[in-house]
Amino acid sequence: MAYEHRLQRRVEFSETDAAGIVHFSNFFRYMESAEHAFFRSLGYTVMMRHYDPPLGFPRVHVECDYKSPLRFDDLVEVHLLVREKKLKVLSYLIKFNNLTADPIVEAARGILTVVCVTHAPDGRLVSIRIPHEIADRIKVAPAEFLR
């Protein structure tokens, strides 16, 4: 069972703003990349077309607190931790660590919450239980990791 996933990436020049730091909106893209990588590490994707009807995991809440700027070419570790698992909902704590800094510094910290949904015949999104074969592979991170 998994409760975390780490990915590393370099800050691209196009992700920076006029001040030379990563634009705040890119942290949300980084969170999404980490979530997708987490699901792939479990053998799944966030868009599950093999279910009938297909399942997805849209965002219902996202937040990010910024602590230290990231700049072009910094090496960033995006560390996703499962902070909460309910029948229909997953919530992640995501830590952004600047691996280029000496010492390594936490640049930001975010929360991403998603809900498992399917499409009703009329097109509405309807929340459903996370399928057991997926839920059984995910557990909540130990409390000391979530600090």
Descriptive tags:
single chain; 147 residues; mainly beta; Thiol Ester Dehydrase, Chain A; five-stranded antiparallel sheet; four-stranded antiparallel sheet; 9 strands; 14% helix
Structure notes:
This protein is mainly beta. It has one domain: Thiol Ester Dehydrase, Chain A, CATH 3.10.129.10. It is built from two helices and nine strands. The strands form two sheets. A five-stranded antiparallel β-sheet has the order 1-5-6-7-4, covered by helices on one side.
Report a brief summary of the structure:
It is built from 2 helices and 9 strands; from the N terminus they run βαββββββββα. The chain is mainly β and 147 residues long.
At CATH level 2, the architecture is Roll
CATH class equals Alpha Beta
The whole-number mean of residue pLDDT values reads: 96
The tally of helices reads 2
What is the strand content?
35-45%
Q: Order of SSEs, N→C?
A: EHEEEEEEEEH
Q: CATH homologous superfamily, by name?
A: Hotdog Thioesterase
> What strand line-up does the widest sheet have?
1-5-6-7-4
Number of strands: 9
Low-confidence stretches at least 5 residues in length (pLDDT < 50)?
Answer: none
* Measured distance between first and last alpha carbons: 21 Å
Helix content: 10-25%
Number of discrete domains:
1
Taking Cα atoms only, what radius of gyration do you get, to the nearest Å?
A: 16 Å
